[in-house]
Amino acid sequence: MSKNYRVGIIGCGRIAARHANAYTTIESTELVAAAEPDPERRLKFDETYGIVGLYENYREMLSNEELDIISICTWHPLHCELTVAAAKSGVQAILCEKPMALNLGEADRMLAACEETGTKLVIGHQHRFDPQAVNAKELVKGNAIGELHSIFGHCSSDLLNNGTHVVDLIRYFVDDSPIGWVMGQIDRPSDKVNFGLRVEHNAIGQWQFENGVYAILAQGDLAPSSYAFQLCGTTGIISVNAPEGRQLQVITKNGELDVSLEKVNPKQAEVEELIAWLEGGPPHRSRGANGRATLEVLMAIMESSRLRSAIYLPLETEESPLELMIESEQI
């Protein structure tokens, strides 16, 4: 089968390898260009993937190459700038790594640029393709644990780096139901920077979906380090990525279910669904609008801490509430 989609990658660090491996595995995509200012990373990427179009400056790559898909694999502060530039260059689709942006103002500029140019935007929340997550969602829809009433998710690191995955998967479990309100608190006892961004040490959040499901998040140094979830229903519990190492455990009123999981490469599945969307299939499960909705929860947790009150969505604050707190010496 001949290659159909010409792909370029911006940023050639660790996460870019997962994108490149997906593109070089899928028959309908051809990785033809990459941009990376660091010469050592650029050389290593070339040695691994044999890319002809290597650039130090991403603008030169966008100008010189006829690309269909762009993957943005840089640190978070560049996501907005690069997404807008890629959309304006005329590509058909953009796969931008998580988190979508640093604040809602940036996210809205990204969405507006893609809407104006007809570019399809996907945010790299690839855990929506994890087989244990997909199966958990289907089990909930099939009433395996009765009526779902609450979800607890936790992980190490900060809200924008790993918390975005926790919030996004909780939203996925409830079919991306709208959220009514958010409450949260953050802790930042000293300066902390991650991927070029000032971040918090700890965070807790709680919110309620309009369908009634209640969610709780624990994030950071004091939270359980595993990326895990407990979905509680009226007649059972589903554990996703249980700390003891089980990817999926399902306890029903009739005992434990034996669930087998197929092997899936989440990043490859993410790209394949993007291609299907380009070819007339349903919207991508991690499309830009869903990425913004996840970011809104993260920002609302920060805003709740800043204002010491519940935040009823939609959130109107376009800036990062954490940055506002830091600049005002509130935290």
Task: Describe the protein in words.
- This protein has helices at about 15-25, 40-50, 60-65, 80-90, 105-115, 130-140, 160-175, 265-280, 290-305, 320-325, and strands at about 5-10, 30-35, 55, 70, 95, 120-125, 150-155, 180-185, 195, 195-200, 200-210, 215-220, 230-235, 235-240, 250, 255, 310.
- Strand 11 and strand 12 form a beta hairpin.
- Helix 3 runs parallel beside helix 4 and helix 9 packs parallel to helix 10 (about 320-325).
- About 35% of the residues lie in helices and about 25% in strands.
- It is globular.
- It folds into two domains: about 5-125 and about 270-285, Rossmann fold, CATH 3.40.50.720; about 130-265 and about 295-325, 2-Layer Sandwich (Dihydrodipicolinate Reductase, domain 2), CATH 3.30.360.10.
- The longest helix is centred in the last third of the chain and has 20 residues, at about 290-305.
- The chain has a nine-stranded mixed beta sheet. A six-stranded parallel beta sheet has the order 3-2-1-4-5-6, sandwiched between helices. Strands 9-10 form a two-stranded antiparallel sheet.
- The termini are far apart.
- By secondary structure, the chain is α/β, with parallel strands linked by helices.
- The protein is built from ten helices and 17 strands.
